[in-house]
Amino acid sequence: MSAKTKFAAFASLVAFTATVAFAQEAPPQTLLTNVHVFDGVNEARIENASVLIEGNLIKEVSTGSIEAPDATVIDGGGRTLMPGMHDQHVHLTVFNPLSDGLRQNITPFHLGGVATIRSERILMNGFTTVRDLGGPAKSIARIIDTGMAPGPRIYSSEAFITQTSGHADFRKLNDRHPTLSGQGPSHWVDTEMSFIADGPEQIRMAVRENLRRGATQIKIMVSGGVTSEFDPLHSLQYQADEIQMAVKTAEQWGTYVTCHVFTEPAIRNCIDNGAKTVEHLPFLTSEVAEVMVEKQIMFATAVAPVYSVSTEQAEAFYTPSSFKKWKSVRDAAANMIEVIQTTPGMIDLYTLGTDLINNWDQTLEQDKKMSDEFRYLHEAGFSAYDILRVATSNGARMNRLTGLNNPYQDGPLGVIEEGAYADLLLVDGNPLEDILLLAEPDANLKIIMKDGVIYKNTLN
């Protein structure tokens, strides 16, 4: 055999080997046909479309035929295909902090076990991405991302950061201060739930510790809250230099700070000192809303915990001091919704958040109530289109504020477009006409796909 012939044979062998290797490594394809696509952004659906998924990404969206001979074909039957939803305010590992037996009876093993169960239920509600705003959620995220258990993508803040007497200072009245008493870490630090940090130096340390643990963004408490006993709602927590230190430290890692806020002064305290997003804001005013639009401050209201229980249930659940605060928040929230609806540009900054907290053994009952958010927003007069944006592309846009800390860098989330993550829901009906279809996920979500993997398919 001549040298030329040997080289040609060798080249053919290399090409054949490369072809075989490529065929072996080619990611699987799924072709969804006969679907009407809500892409997460535009009100008009893409009618009679097909969507090709390759691996964990969307390869093609077309109203024409798509050639994919090796794909698994699923006929959508004229149903609506939409992006997986985002819940931008959850607590996977937090249970009712007012429970007297919580510290004595709940261990980190409890937290992890229940959070794993809770994560699967959240995914089955159609939420393929969540932003966890307090508690040790990064470990759950690792378990889910490696495929060991089903659940949503998680953007974790890790431990709450609170001042002494702040909203995440969960001590009972006679519990000694871990720093002032010289006792060292408290139960809440031991379980990686919250840091009591006073002054810029302690805040800098707490932020850095959360980032070390894998936090994608930072959460600080800047006003009173309902489930904490010793901070009235009007209390203004953290001073300007403390908030600025949290913001500066987070920005050094390319990410942002969000604030728990209830009152107008607390909202201003945050956004004037560099926070990029805010949470709850039941006492929102038109004046502050206009400033938020000007500065493009995104937010999650998390109104479901206020409206998903009756007054009788709340009175039994909360301590007397917390029930009084809950009642005032409930009475104020309708005005907050009106401000959001009447301030131009606010709906573009709004993200869906449920913030549901319950006793650990009632977690499945709690997570099923995520649908209450849809019922409340519908009854409050939001259009189905606006609610769908709030639950999909708006949430994804908020999560992009994490910059290079974003753990999901391969494509956009919250949309259906070429190159986006294949996080998809097939809805039996048109949620643009009936948003309450999403309030019954067990019946109306026929397919739930996350990262190209189908976790539910009840078409047959």
Report on this structure.
With 460 residues, this protein is α/β, with parallel strands linked by helices. The chain contains 17 helices and 17 strands. The chain has helices at 3-25, 102-105, 108-124, 138-145, 187-190, 199-212, 240-251, 264-271, 286-295, 304-307, 311-317, 320-342, 363-368, 372-379, 384-391, 393-399, 441-444, and strands spanning 29-37, 46-54, 57-62, 72-83, 85-90, 127-132, 153-156, 160-162, 194-196, 218-221, 257-261, 277-280, 298-300, 350-351, 424-427, 445-450, 453-457. The strands form four sheets. The chain has a seven-stranded mixed sheet with strand order 3-2-1-4-15-16-17.
Residue ranges: pLDDT <50 for 5 or more in a row? none
* Strand coverage percent: 15-25%
Coarse morphology: globular
* Helicity, as a percent range: 25-40%
Note the gap between the termini.
60 Å
Beta strands, count? 17
Structural class: alpha/beta
Give the strand line-up of the largest sheet.
3-2-1-4-15-16-17
What does the largest sheet look like? 7 strands, mixed
Average of per-residue pLDDT values: 89
Number of DSSP helical runs: 17
Rg measurement, Å: 24 Å
Features:
alpha/beta; seven-stranded mixed β-sheet; 17 helices; 20% strand; globular
Brief synopsis:
The chain is α/β, with parallel strands linked by helices. It has 17 helices and 17 strands. 48% of the residues are buried.
Task: Please render the helix and strand layout as text.
Blueprint: H1 3-25, E1 29-37, E2 46-54, E3 57-62, E4 72-83, E5 85-90, H2 102-105, H3 108-124, E6 127-132, H4 138-145, E7 153-156, E8 160-162, H5 187-190, E9 194-196, H6 199-212, E10 218-221, H7 240-251, E11 257-261, H8 264-271, E12 277-280, H9 286-295, E13 298-300, H10 304-307, H11 311-317, H12 320-342, E14 350-351, H13 363-368, H14 372-379, H15 384-391, H16 393-399, E15 424-427, H17 441-444, E16 445-450, E17 453-457
Parallel strand pairs: 1-4, 5-6, 6-7, 8-9, 10-11, 11-12, 12-13, 13-14
Antiparallel strand pairs: 1-2, 2-3, 4-15, 15-16, 16-17
Helix pairs in contact: 6-7, 11-12
